[in-house]
Write a sequence for this structure.
């Protein structure tokens, strides 16, 4: 099969953050220290090589970038300071832009201005729409129920619409990923029943992020902190999504919220808050973890919106509870002005790894078994393989 | 000839006043235009050729620290504008030793020569001082020995100064040389004996150069000679004293894998062939004469004088040869290879001593055995002749070399000696598996590529891919690495790991260079005058570099360079021109000389 080489590919990836790929001289130290590299998925060295050679098609169909959690061991070990960890991160960004059929992700990753303008535009439009809706249908002095500024039944429909658009794009992306990796990139047959056999991988990896915890710990502490923080953030996130998509009506209604919802709401808020603080601190203080040394502009947009959402949510909750209903309504509009662009932006940003990562691991496990079935692994040196 | 001068610079840290040079250049005859393009300029070919055409330039001078980097674009532009591409000339400051702010005048002279089309080395010939016929050689490894013998055989006086108790240096520690697999000692020891017996060589072991003053051709050198405390002439190396010495320390000559006493001889063929006292560890010396003194009582020749004192020697010499050699990079902090944690991870030098027939195991390659001290119950791992041979050995190349965190350069000898190790292991142990992990195989010399092919055909697994992970599980070492050419990751059991450790200048090289006024490069190696055209001379007249202290090189190159240095020294002794410092030449002198060459 002929493979097309794209000589300008390395410059394309430079925009996504892979700046030092040319330094790599293929020693393989990075693959050696990686906790996730194995005989079938060999990275980061191989991905670095494909990148250097401009094998765009090979990388487009590869799942390796999604198997990397950026523990930073490879970048620390690299004798050439070629930063393989950041390269894998950049490849993930690039893959997101490849999975996205609209081309929006590509625009966001390549132009900070366009991203900021788009986010601002959506925020303003949301604000105008909600304000007009509120003024036309209700009164600013009422928080919920009859004649409310933003009644919960309306918010529920609104949330579901926005969330639906988001999920539509996310799953379209996942479908493209499947097409690239399992159809375009596979040269060996994949039995259909493997898709069912490995199905458990998706919820399992989504909930536990087990592979992240397996990352090398640098021997600094018993618990792998980045995993713990990520786990807290992701759980807070998922709980919050479920709360606002399903339970927004009882939640908004006020004092009579049933206690489990209450507790989950607080738990999720704490998870998000800690995640935000950790994220900002790591990036400003630039601690020992290599993975925080470089920050793409899109990363900051994510965290800024998240902070606005969390803080405005908390403020709104307090205002509502203490009876400042007008202020609570205004804060609610501000809150939603951040929530809408944040949700709509997700399929086109790094955040989409929420779906892509478990899916990639699912596909990877299928590929692995398919390869083993083909008995492609003949070992002439009779060396034990992990 | 209408000349245009372009300044471009590669090194960002380079602090030379380009504006001053440019101003000077503008006043030179025939120079039409001067442009400073800055650091690592992005040169536009079309614009450049247009400007050459519009100014009607017939000659271009590209000036800078490493102008050769930019020559291709200037040549293209010259061709495009229809000029003579042979008239693109380089004014390389780095090459001719104008490396910092102090050498501004030399940089100007380099540009001036280039604008006249005169090679700098023809115009700048220092000379003048009459030369003292004695030569000082610092360091008595193979480079120092070779240079001393060449000069002494021509009938000139040589003072050979060596820091340790014997001459021979690192080569004396080696078992075999690559690629011929000759016995290193068979080549070296006759030369060592020659040095010891030569009437024109005054050998000073345990000595150090303390200060150097004077000018080229007449250096005054002060040497501190540490007390040997054993009479070199009287000692017959009978080994009686060793049995009564209570002190036991790691042997430097055995790279720390065996032990010696405080009175010792580095190795049986040492020159001078006499014992010496390690004053840092000797109980008599450290207790200031209070305790011990057993060896004095035991010595049948009465040649031990534990109270001998250090001496200072003053010398006058005309030329000085630096041959201070190298040492291994300290890898105790590169922890992924487990050196220091796992007993059977060895450095290359340790392995060299292990496999050497004069080593502590008699040349048997064995793994370390555990030894428990009966009194303290302390466990230690030592090599003993009864040890078990390893079943598999991994040799990891480029440890600390070609690595931006440690040595960014290639140490040049590791690939070849690692292949040699593979051969020696295969030769001595039947059914052993040897794995070489390499990044790039640098077999650059005569017969080296053939040697590498031969090792591969002997059944050594030569794996393209580095290993960065040595681990231990249940008392078994594992090596993990990527086999790039076979496209897979490997992890397998090994009993021994040999690390091909990178080389650095021997300690004190930089201080010695500073004392003599010779620059070191950023890695600490001493700077020669011109890497291509004059690799033996330095900035200072009458001071030369030979062997590893200039840059990593193998034994053939070291010997060749040492002989070349000897030729340079003898040349200065026989010509009537005398020698001088390159830096003592004034700008106008070089200009005058260049003009006279130019008009020829």
């Amino acid at each position: 099969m002929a493979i097309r080489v794209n000589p300008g590919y390395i410059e394309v990836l430079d925009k996504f953050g892979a700046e030092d790929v040319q330094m790599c001289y293929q020693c393989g130290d990075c693959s050696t220290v990686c906790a996730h590299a194995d005989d079938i998925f060999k990275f980061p060295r191989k991905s670095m090589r494909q990148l250097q050679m401009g094998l765009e098609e090979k990388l487009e169909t590869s799942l390796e970038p999604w198997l990397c959690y950026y523990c930073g061991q490879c970048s620390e070990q690299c004798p050439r300071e070629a930063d393989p960890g950041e390269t894998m991160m950049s490849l993930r960004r690039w893959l997101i832009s490849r999975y996205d059929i609209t081309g929006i992700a590509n625009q966001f990753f390549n132009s900070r201005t366009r991203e900021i303008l788009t986010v601002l535009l959506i925020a303003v439009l949301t604000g105008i729409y909600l304000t007009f809706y509120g003024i036309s249908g209700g009164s600013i002095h009422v928080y919920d129920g009859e004649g409310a500024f933003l009644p919960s039944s309306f918010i529920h429909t609104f949330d579901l619409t926005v969330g639906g658009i988001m999920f539509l794009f996310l799953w379209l992306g996942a479908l493209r990923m499947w097409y690239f990796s399992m159809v375009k990139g596979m040269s060996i047959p994949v039995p259909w029943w493997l898709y069912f056999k490995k199905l458990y991988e998706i919820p399992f990896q989504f909930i536990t992020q087990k592979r992240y915890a397996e990352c090398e710990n640098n021997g600094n502490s018993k618990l792998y902190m980045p995993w713990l923080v990520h786990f807290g953030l992701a759980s807070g996130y998922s709980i919050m999504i479920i709360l606002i998509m399903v339970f927004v009506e009882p939640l908004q209604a006020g004092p009579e919220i049933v206690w489990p919802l209450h507790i989950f709401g607080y738990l999720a808020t704490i998870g998000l808050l800690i995640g935000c603080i950790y994220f900002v601190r790591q990036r400003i203080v630039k601690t020992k973890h290599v993975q925080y040394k470089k920050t793409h502009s899109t990363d900051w947009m994510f965290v800024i919106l998240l902070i606005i959402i969390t803080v405005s949510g908390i403020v709104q909750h307090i205002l509502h509870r203490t009876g400042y209903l007008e202020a609570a309504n205004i804060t609610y509009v501000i809150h939603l002005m951040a929530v809408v662009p944040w949700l709509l932006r997700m399929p086109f940003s790094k955040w989409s790894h929420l779906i892509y990562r478990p899916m990639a691991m699912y596909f990877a496990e299928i590929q692995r078994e398919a390869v083993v079935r083909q008995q492609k692994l003949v070992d002439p040196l009779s060396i034990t393989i992990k | 000839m209408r000349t245009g001068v372009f300044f471009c610079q590669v090194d960002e840290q380079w602090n030379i006043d380009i504006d001053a040079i440019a101003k000077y250049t503008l006043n030179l005859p025939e120079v039409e235009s001067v442009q400073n393009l800055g650091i690592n300029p992005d040169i536009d070919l079309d614009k450049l050729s247009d400007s050459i055409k519009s100014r009607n330039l017939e000659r271009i001078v590209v000036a800078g620290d490493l102008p050769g980097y930019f020559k291709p674009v200037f040549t293209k532009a010259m061709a495009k504008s229809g000029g003579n591409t042979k008239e693109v000339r380089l004014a390389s400051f780095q090459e001719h030793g104008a490396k910092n702010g102090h050498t501004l005048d030399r940089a100007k002279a380099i540009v001036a020569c280039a604008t006249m089309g005169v090679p700098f080395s023809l115009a700048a010939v220092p000379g003048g001082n009459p030369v003292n016929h004695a030569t000082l050689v610092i360091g008595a490894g193979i480079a120092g020995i070779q240079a001393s013998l060449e000069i002494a055989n021509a009938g000139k006086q040589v003072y050979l100064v060596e820091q340790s108790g014997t001459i021979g240096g690192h080569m004396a520690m080696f078992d075999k040389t690559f690629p011929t697999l000759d016995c290193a000692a068979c080549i070296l020891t006759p030369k060592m004996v020659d040095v010891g017996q030569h009437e024109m060589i005054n050998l000073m072991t345990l000595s150090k150069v303390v200060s150097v003053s004077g000018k080229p051709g007449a250096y005054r050198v002060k040497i501190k000679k540490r007390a040997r405390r054993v009479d070199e002439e009287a000692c017959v190396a009978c080994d009686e004293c060793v049995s009564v010495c209570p002190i036991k320390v790691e042997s430097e000559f055995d790279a720390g894998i065996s032990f010696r006493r405080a009175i010792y001889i580095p190795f049986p063929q040492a020159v001078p062939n006499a014992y010496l006292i390690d004053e840092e560890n000797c109980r008599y010396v450290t207790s200031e004469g209070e305790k011990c003194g057993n060896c004095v009582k035991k010595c049948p020749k009465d040649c031990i004088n534990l109270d001998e004192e250090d001496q200072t020697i003053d010398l006058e010499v005309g030329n000085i040869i630096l041959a201070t050699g190298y040492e291994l990079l300290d890898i105790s902090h590169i922890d992924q290879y487990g050196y220091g944690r796992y007993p059977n991870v060895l450095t290359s030098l340790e392995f060299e001593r292990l496999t050497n027939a004069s080593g502590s195991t008699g040349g048997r390659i064995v793994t370390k055995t555990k030894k428990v001290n009966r009194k303290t119950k302390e466990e230690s791992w030592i090599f003993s002749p009864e040890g078990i041979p390893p079943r598999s050995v991994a040799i990891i190349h480029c440890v600390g070399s070609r690595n931006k965190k440690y040595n960014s350069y290639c140490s040049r000898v590791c690939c070849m000696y690692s292949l040699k190790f593979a051969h020696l292991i295969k030769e001595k142990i039947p059914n052993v598996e040897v794995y070489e992990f390499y990044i790039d195989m640098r077999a650059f010399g005569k017969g080296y590529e053939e040697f590498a092919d031969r090792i591969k055909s002997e059944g050594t697994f030569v794996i393209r891919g580095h290993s960065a992970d040595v681990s231990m599980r249940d008392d078994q070492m594992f090596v993990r690495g990527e086999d790039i050419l076979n496209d897979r990751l490997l992890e397998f059991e090994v009993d021994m790991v040999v690390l091909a450790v990178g080389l650095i200048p021997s300690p004190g090289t930089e201080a010695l260079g500073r004392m003599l006024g010779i620059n070191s490069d950023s890695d600490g190696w001493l700077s020669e005058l011109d890497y291509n055209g004059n690799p033996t001379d330095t900035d200072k007249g009458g001071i030369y570099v030979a062997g590893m202290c200039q840059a990593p090189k193998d034994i053939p190159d070291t010997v060749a360079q040492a002989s070349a240095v000897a030729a340079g020294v003898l040349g200065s002794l026989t010509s009537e021109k005398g020698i001088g410092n390159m830096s003592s030449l004034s700008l106008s002198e070089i200009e005058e000389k260049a003009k006279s060459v130019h008009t020829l």
In short: The longest helix of chain A spans residues 152-184.
